Amino acid sequence: MTNQLKKILLGDQGIVLIFIVAFTIVALLVPNFLTERNMLGLLQSVVTVGIVACTMMFCLAARDFDLSVGSTAAFTGMVAVMASNTTGSILVGIGAALLCGAFVGFVNGFVIAKFRINALITTLATMQIVRGLALISSDGRAIGINDPGFYQLALSKLFGIPTPVWILAGLFVIFGFVLNRTVFGKNTLAIGGNPEASRLAGANVDKTRIWIFALQGVVCAVAGILLASRITSGQPNAAVGLELSVISACVLGGVSLAGGRATMAGVIVGVMIMGIAENVMNLMNIPAFYQYIVRGLILLLAVMLDNLRSSAFIRR
C-alpha cells in the first residue's frame, strides 16, 4: 500500500470512502436493501444511536467516556411515560424526562470535573445506579402508555419521512455547528488535545466538562423519549448495550479515543455504517446471537483504526 493511499484511508475522507464501497457492495448483493421501505427502516433504526452519538462525540473529543447513556435513555423514557400517565400531559412527561437526563449528566460531569474521578469509573457507577432506579420505579415491569398521542412522537411523518429522522438530522446540524463554529466546540477539542495547555490559555476546563455531560444527559433523554414512543411503553431494560454501539460509531467516524479530534461528518458516516451492518444482518436472517459477535468485531475494528489514525497523526 502506497503512502498516499494510506493517508487517504486513515484521513477524514477514508471513512467516507469505506462507507461508499460498503454501501455499493451491500446494495448489489443484498436483496431488498434499496427498497423505500427498507431505507426508511434503516433511518429509523439509527435514530437512537445517532442522537446519542451527537454528544458522545464531545465526550470522547475531551478525553472522556460516558457508559451511562443506555441506562439514562431507558430511565428518562420511563420518566416520560410515568409523568405523562400521571399528569395526563405529554409535555409535562417530556419536560420531566429532559430534566432527569440533564441532572444525571450534570452529576456525571460534576463528579468527574470536581472530584477528579476517572470518567470510565464514574459513568460505570451511574450506569448501574440509573438502571437500578429504572427497575425500582417500575418494579421491573414495562409501563404502558395511556395517551395514544404519545405514540405520534415516533410514528408521525413529515414529507413521508418519520419525525424522529428529522429530529436526528436537526441535532446533527446543531451539534456540527457547535463543534466547528463556537468557542465551546473549540474548547472541547483543545481540552482533549491538551487539558493543561487549555487551562493556561484561559479555557474553563471543569465548566466545559460539566456542560458536555449535562448536554449528553439531555440528548439521552431525547433518545429515551423517542424510544419509549416507538416501543409503545417505558421499558426499564431498554437500550442495553447502547453505549458500545454509540462509541463504536463515533470511533469508526474518526473521533479519537485520545481526544482532540472529531468531525460531525465522520460521526454521521460511522452511525450509518453501524446501522447498515445491523440492517444487513436482519435482512439475511442472521440469528441475534451471532449479531453480538459482529458488533464486537466492529468495535475492535474501530479501535484498531483509531490507533492507526493516531499513529499517522503523530508521525505528521
From TrEMBL:
Show the GO cellular component annotation of the record.
Answer: plasma membrane
* PANTHER family per the UniProt record, alphabetical: ABC TRANSPORTER PERMEASE PROTEIN YPHD-RELATED-RELATED, L-ARABINOSE TRANSPORT SYSTEM PERMEASE PROTEIN ARAH
A Gene Ontology molecular function term of the record: transmembrane transporter activity
Keyword 4Fe-4S among UniProt keywords: no
Describe its membrane topology: Multi-pass membrane protein
**Name the record gives this protein:** L-arabinose ABC transporter permease AraH
Q: Which residues cross the membrane?
A: 14-34, 40-60, 67-84, 90-112, 119-138, 158-179, 210-232, 238-258, 265-283, 289-308
- State the species of origin: Phyllobacterium myrsinacearum
Xref: Pfam families: BPD_transp_2
**InterPro entries per the UniProt record, alphabetical:** ABC_transp_permease
Q: Species lineage, top-down?
A: Bacteria, Pseudomonadati, Pseudomonadota, Alphaproteobacteria, Hyphomicrobiales
